[in-house]
Protein backbone atom coordinates (compact mmCIF):
# COMPACT_ATOMS: atom_id res chain seq x y z
CA UNK A 1 0.00 0.00 0.00
CA UNK A 2 1.17 3.51 -0.83
CA UNK A 3 0.38 6.44 1.46
CA UNK A 4 0.00 10.17 0.96
CA UNK A 5 1.03 12.71 3.59
CA UNK A 6 -1.62 15.22 4.64
CA UNK A 7 -0.88 18.81 5.57
CA UNK A 8 -1.42 17.71 9.19
CA UNK A 9 1.71 15.56 8.94
CA UNK A 10 -0.23 12.31 9.20
CA UNK A 11 -0.47 9.71 6.45
CA UNK A 12 -3.50 8.42 4.57
CA UNK A 13 -3.75 5.27 2.43
CA UNK A 14 -3.93 6.19 -1.24
CA UNK A 15 -6.52 3.47 -1.83
CA UNK A 16 -9.61 3.01 0.27
CA UNK A 17 -13.14 1.66 0.15
CA UNK A 18 -16.37 3.63 -0.27
CA UNK A 19 -19.85 2.64 0.90
CA UNK A 20 -21.99 5.13 -1.05
CA UNK A 21 -25.41 3.61 -1.89
CA UNK A 22 -24.84 0.50 0.26
CA UNK A 23 -28.07 1.21 2.11
CA UNK A 24 -28.83 -2.27 3.46
CA UNK A 25 -27.10 -2.13 6.84
CA UNK A 26 -26.43 -5.86 7.09
CA UNK A 27 -24.88 -5.84 3.63
CA UNK A 28 -22.86 -2.73 4.45
CA UNK A 29 -21.42 -4.38 7.55
CA UNK A 30 -20.57 -7.49 5.53
CA UNK A 31 -18.82 -5.59 2.72
CA UNK A 32 -16.72 -3.54 5.17
CA UNK A 33 -15.61 -6.76 6.89
CA UNK A 34 -14.84 -8.30 3.49
CA UNK A 35 -12.87 -5.21 2.51
CA UNK A 36 -10.83 -5.37 5.72
CA UNK A 37 -10.04 -9.01 4.92
CA UNK A 38 -9.01 -7.93 1.40
CA UNK A 39 -6.50 -5.44 2.83
CA UNK A 40 -8.36 -2.12 2.79
CA UNK A 41 -7.71 0.20 5.73
CA UNK A 42 -9.31 3.45 4.54
CA UNK A 43 -13.12 3.54 4.73
CA UNK A 44 -15.29 6.40 3.50
CA UNK A 45 -18.86 6.98 4.65
CA UNK A 46 -21.10 10.02 5.22
CA UNK A 47 -24.08 11.10 7.28
CA UNK A 48 -26.28 11.19 4.19
CA UNK A 49 -25.36 7.61 3.23
CA UNK A 50 -27.32 6.36 6.23
CA UNK A 51 -24.83 3.58 6.96
CA UNK A 52 -22.41 5.05 9.52
CA UNK A 53 -23.74 2.64 12.18
CA UNK A 54 -23.09 -0.40 9.97
CA UNK A 55 -19.55 0.77 9.23
CA UNK A 56 -19.01 1.28 12.96
CA UNK A 57 -20.30 -2.19 13.80
CA UNK A 58 -17.96 -3.74 11.23
CA UNK A 59 -15.00 -1.80 12.62
CA UNK A 60 -15.81 -2.87 16.17
CA UNK A 61 -16.17 -6.52 15.14
CA UNK A 62 -12.91 -6.51 13.16
CA UNK A 63 -11.01 -4.94 16.05
CA UNK A 64 -12.53 -7.36 18.57
CA UNK A 65 -11.53 -10.29 16.35
CA UNK A 66 -7.94 -9.04 16.18
CA UNK A 67 -8.06 -8.45 12.42
CA UNK A 68 -6.98 -4.81 12.74
CA UNK A 69 -6.29 -2.19 15.36
CA UNK A 70 -8.03 1.16 15.43
CA UNK A 71 -4.67 2.81 14.68
CA UNK A 72 -4.38 0.85 11.42
CA UNK A 73 -7.70 2.17 10.15
CA UNK A 74 -8.38 5.51 8.50
CA UNK A 75 -12.06 6.39 8.85
CA UNK A 76 -13.74 9.24 6.99
CA UNK A 77 -17.23 10.66 7.26
CA UNK A 78 -18.92 13.85 6.09
CA UNK A 79 -21.17 16.60 7.41
CA UNK A 80 -24.42 16.92 5.46
CA UNK A 81 -25.94 20.16 4.13
CA UNK A 82 -28.77 20.03 6.69
CA UNK A 83 -26.20 20.69 9.43
CA UNK A 84 -24.06 23.10 7.41
CA UNK A 85 -23.76 25.96 9.87
CA UNK A 86 -21.68 26.68 12.96
CA UNK A 87 -24.17 25.51 15.59
CA UNK A 88 -25.79 22.50 13.87
CA UNK A 89 -22.38 21.22 12.81
CA UNK A 90 -21.68 20.39 16.47
CA UNK A 91 -24.58 17.92 16.53
CA UNK A 92 -23.54 16.64 13.10
CA UNK A 93 -20.02 15.80 14.22
CA UNK A 94 -21.24 14.26 17.47
CA UNK A 95 -23.82 12.18 15.61
CA UNK A 96 -21.19 10.78 13.25
CA UNK A 97 -18.88 9.89 16.13
CA UNK A 98 -21.75 8.20 17.99
CA UNK A 99 -23.01 6.31 14.92
CA UNK A 100 -19.52 5.02 14.18
CA UNK A 101 -18.83 4.25 17.83
CA UNK A 102 -15.49 6.03 17.63
CA UNK A 103 -13.70 8.51 19.88
CA UNK A 104 -12.16 10.24 16.88
CA UNK A 105 -12.35 10.32 13.09
CA UNK A 106 -9.24 10.34 10.93
CA UNK A 107 -10.90 12.69 8.43
CA UNK A 108 -14.15 14.63 8.40
CA UNK A 109 -15.37 16.51 5.34
CA UNK A 110 -17.88 19.19 4.47
CA UNK A 111 -19.94 17.17 2.00
CA UNK A 112 -21.00 20.05 -0.28
CA UNK A 113 -20.14 23.70 -0.80
CA UNK A 114 -23.69 24.62 0.20
CA UNK A 115 -25.29 26.30 3.17
CA UNK A 116 -23.14 28.18 5.67
CA UNK A 117 -20.07 26.07 5.07
CA UNK A 118 -17.75 28.75 6.47
CA UNK A 119 -19.62 28.62 9.77
CA UNK A 120 -19.59 24.82 9.75
CA UNK A 121 -15.85 24.89 9.06
CA UNK A 122 -15.23 26.94 12.18
CA UNK A 123 -16.87 24.14 14.17
CA UNK A 124 -14.74 21.51 12.43
CA UNK A 125 -11.65 23.56 13.22
CA UNK A 126 -12.53 23.38 16.93
CA UNK A 127 -12.93 19.59 16.79
CA UNK A 128 -9.65 19.40 14.92
CA UNK A 129 -7.96 21.35 17.70
CA UNK A 130 -9.33 18.96 20.35
CA UNK A 131 -8.20 15.90 18.38
CA UNK A 132 -11.66 14.44 17.86
CA UNK A 133 -11.14 15.06 14.14
CA UNK A 134 -7.54 14.22 13.20
CA UNK A 135 -7.92 15.98 9.85
CA UNK A 136 -10.65 18.06 8.23
CA UNK A 137 -11.41 18.64 4.59
CA UNK A 138 -14.01 19.37 1.95
CA UNK A 139 -15.85 17.62 -0.85
CA UNK A 140 -17.16 18.86 -4.19
CA UNK A 141 -15.29 22.17 -3.98
CA UNK A 142 -14.43 23.33 -7.51
CA UNK A 143 -11.25 25.36 -8.12
CA UNK A 144 -12.81 28.79 -7.63
CA UNK A 145 -14.58 27.64 -4.44
CA UNK A 146 -11.49 25.98 -3.02
CA UNK A 147 -9.34 29.02 -3.79
CA UNK A 148 -11.73 31.38 -2.02
CA UNK A 149 -12.04 28.94 0.88
CA UNK A 150 -8.30 28.49 1.37
CA UNK A 151 -7.75 32.24 1.20
CA UNK A 152 -10.33 32.76 3.96
CA UNK A 153 -10.16 29.98 6.57
CA UNK A 154 -7.68 29.45 9.39
CA UNK A 155 -7.07 25.72 8.81
CA UNK A 156 -6.43 24.75 5.18
CA UNK A 157 -8.40 21.62 4.18
CA UNK A 158 -6.34 18.43 4.20
CA UNK A 159 -8.40 16.78 1.43
CA UNK A 160 -10.85 17.72 -1.31
CA UNK A 161 -12.96 14.77 -2.42
CA UNK A 162 -14.30 15.34 -5.95
CA UNK A 163 -15.38 13.38 -8.99
CA UNK A 164 -12.21 12.18 -10.76
CA UNK A 165 -11.98 9.55 -13.49
CA UNK A 166 -10.79 9.43 -17.13
CA UNK A 167 -14.04 10.96 -18.38
CA UNK A 168 -13.71 13.90 -15.98
CA UNK A 169 -10.01 14.47 -15.33
CA UNK A 170 -10.32 17.88 -13.59
CA UNK A 171 -6.71 18.90 -14.26
CA UNK A 172 -7.41 22.48 -13.16
CA UNK A 173 -8.79 21.20 -9.86
CA UNK A 174 -5.64 19.16 -9.28
CA UNK A 175 -3.45 22.20 -9.97
CA UNK A 176 -5.41 24.29 -7.45
CA UNK A 177 -5.17 21.59 -4.80
CA UNK A 178 -1.44 21.23 -5.36
CA UNK A 179 -1.01 24.99 -4.92
CA UNK A 180 -2.65 24.88 -1.48
CA UNK A 181 -1.25 21.52 -0.40
CA UNK A 182 -4.66 19.83 -0.45
CA UNK A 183 -4.76 16.10 -1.23
CA UNK A 184 -7.17 15.12 -4.04
CA UNK A 185 -9.48 12.18 -3.40
CA UNK A 186 -11.65 10.65 -6.12
CA UNK A 187 -15.23 9.69 -5.65
CA UNK A 188 -16.57 7.54 -8.50
CA UNK A 189 -13.00 6.69 -9.59
CA UNK A 190 -14.44 4.01 -11.88
CA UNK A 191 -17.03 6.36 -13.39
CA UNK A 192 -19.81 5.70 -10.91
CA UNK A 193 -21.67 3.44 -13.33
CA UNK A 194 -22.38 6.37 -15.63
CA UNK A 195 -19.70 6.07 -18.30
CA UNK A 196 -19.23 2.32 -18.84
CA UNK A 197 -15.40 2.34 -18.88
CA UNK A 198 -15.39 -1.47 -18.95
CA UNK A 199 -16.88 -1.30 -22.46
CA UNK A 200 -14.47 1.34 -23.75
CA UNK A 201 -12.29 -0.10 -26.52
CA UNK A 202 -9.38 2.26 -25.84
CA UNK A 203 -9.27 1.21 -22.19
CA UNK A 204 -9.72 -2.44 -23.13
CA UNK A 205 -6.68 -2.24 -25.40
CA UNK A 206 -4.51 -0.68 -22.69
CA UNK A 207 -5.69 -3.24 -20.14
CA UNK A 208 -4.80 -6.10 -22.48
CA UNK A 209 -1.34 -4.61 -22.98
CA UNK A 210 -0.61 -4.81 -19.23
CA UNK A 211 -2.45 -8.05 -18.56
CA UNK A 212 -4.84 -6.21 -16.25
CA UNK A 213 -8.57 -5.43 -16.15
CA UNK A 214 -10.00 -2.11 -17.30
CA UNK A 215 -10.94 -1.33 -13.70
CA UNK A 216 -7.38 -1.86 -12.54
CA UNK A 217 -6.04 0.38 -15.31
CA UNK A 218 -8.51 3.17 -14.50
CA UNK A 219 -7.63 3.04 -10.80
CA UNK A 220 -3.91 2.95 -11.58
CA UNK A 221 -4.29 6.04 -13.78
CA UNK A 222 -5.58 8.07 -10.82
CA UNK A 223 -3.06 6.58 -8.39
CA UNK A 224 -0.21 7.68 -10.64
CA UNK A 225 -1.64 11.19 -10.50
CA UNK A 226 -1.28 10.96 -6.68
CA UNK A 227 -5.06 10.88 -6.29
CA UNK A 228 -6.57 8.88 -3.42
CA UNK A 229 -9.23 6.49 -4.74
CA UNK A 230 -12.17 4.91 -2.91
CA UNK A 231 -13.79 2.39 -5.28
CA UNK A 232 -17.02 0.75 -4.13
CA UNK A 233 -18.23 -2.79 -4.76
CA UNK A 234 -20.29 -5.32 -2.85
CA UNK A 235 -18.46 -8.29 -4.40
CA UNK A 236 -15.40 -9.57 -2.55
CA UNK A 237 -13.71 -10.82 -5.71
CA UNK A 238 -13.96 -7.32 -7.18
CA UNK A 239 -12.55 -5.83 -3.97
CA UNK A 240 -9.52 -8.09 -4.34
CA UNK A 241 -9.22 -7.20 -8.04
CA UNK A 242 -9.40 -3.46 -7.38
CA UNK A 243 -6.70 -3.77 -4.71
CA UNK A 244 -4.33 -5.59 -7.06
CA UNK A 245 -2.84 -2.53 -8.75
CA UNK A 246 0.62 -2.30 -7.24
CA UNK A 247 2.58 -4.57 -9.59
CA UNK A 248 2.45 -2.48 -12.78
CA UNK A 249 2.92 1.12 -13.92
CA UNK A 250 1.29 2.87 -16.85
CA UNK A 251 3.61 4.59 -19.33
CA UNK A 252 3.28 8.36 -19.74
CA UNK A 253 1.95 7.75 -23.24
CA UNK A 254 -0.82 5.53 -21.89
CA UNK A 255 -1.53 8.01 -19.09
CA UNK A 256 -2.01 10.74 -21.72
CA UNK A 257 -4.14 8.48 -23.91
CA UNK A 258 -6.45 7.69 -21.00
CA UNK A 259 -6.69 11.39 -20.14
CA UNK A 260 -7.83 12.10 -23.70
CA UNK A 261 -11.19 10.54 -22.78
CA UNK A 262 -12.00 13.65 -20.71
CA UNK A 263 -15.47 15.05 -21.45
CA UNK A 264 -15.19 18.09 -19.18
CA UNK A 265 -17.89 19.22 -16.78
CA UNK A 266 -20.53 18.93 -19.51
CA UNK A 267 -20.01 15.19 -19.56
CA UNK A 268 -20.63 14.57 -15.88
CA UNK A 269 -24.10 13.69 -14.62
CA UNK A 270 -23.75 15.46 -11.25
CA UNK A 271 -24.76 19.06 -11.90
CA UNK A 272 -23.47 21.04 -8.95
CA UNK A 273 -24.05 24.29 -10.87
CA UNK A 274 -27.70 23.43 -11.66
CA UNK A 275 -30.16 25.40 -9.46
CA UNK A 276 -32.63 22.50 -9.45
CA UNK A 277 -29.92 20.16 -8.21
CA UNK A 278 -28.93 22.61 -5.46
CA UNK A 279 -32.56 22.96 -4.32
CA UNK A 280 -32.89 19.18 -4.28
CA UNK A 281 -29.77 18.81 -2.13
CA UNK A 282 -31.06 21.34 0.38
CA UNK A 283 -34.24 19.28 0.77
CA UNK A 284 -32.46 16.01 1.58
CA UNK A 285 -32.72 15.43 5.33
CA UNK A 286 -30.64 12.99 7.38
CA UNK A 287 -32.48 13.55 10.66
CA UNK A 288 -35.58 15.23 12.09
Describe the 3D structure.
With 288 residues, the protein is of the alpha/beta class. Helix content is 40%, strand content 13%. An eight-stranded parallel sheet has the order 3-4-5-6-7-8-9-10. The protein is globular.
Describe the SSE topology.
Blueprint: E1 3-5, E2 11-13, E3 17-18, H1 25-38, E4 42-44, H2 52-64, E5 74-79, H3 88-100, E6 107-110, H4 117-130, E7 136-139, H5 143-150, E8 159-163, H6 171-180, E9 183-187, H7 201-210, H8 214-223, E10 228-229, H9 236-243, H10 252-259, H11 275-282
Parallel strand pairs: 3-4, 4-5, 5-6, 6-7, 7-8, 8-9, 9-10
Antiparallel strand pairs: 1-2
Helix pairs in contact: 1-2, 1-9, 2-3, 3-4, 5-6, 7-8
Briefly say what this structure is:
The chain is of the alpha/beta class and 288 residues long. The chain is built from eleven helices and ten strands.
